[in-house]
Design goal:
Elements: H1 5-12, E1 15-19, H2 24-49, E2 54-59, H3 63-66, E3 76-83, E4 91-99, E5 103-113
Antiparallel strand pairs: 1-5, 2-3, 3-4, 4-5
Length: 122
Amino acid sequence: MSIDVKSLKRVLSMHVLVEGGSSWAFRELIDLVEEIIEERLPLILNSVLEPLGLDSSILRDDGCKIFPQDPRCNDYIVVGIYSQGSDKPVLYTVYCVTRGENTFEFKFLRLVDAASHQEIIG
């Protein structure tokens, strides 16, 4: 792949942290933030990947299929990254969602080679 890994990680990196009181009103805010992220994530990712000649898609419920050894795999949102026109991912981007009564965190975890399932360091 001819794309600089550091640059790719920079455009894929996201971190949203919401913390507050333990009330119904705050839990509704967390619900809204989570809904917006789920709705907008594909648009956000494709808007930064398209200029690089890449596409992406959210791989629903694939966290534990791709990373079965990881105890937090149910908390993962896995995104397949494809060369334009390809249907086989070249990379996976892994985000983790942590949700509590008064906290919500969505963050970039790692970039992974799709063939070897090894984290790409860079």
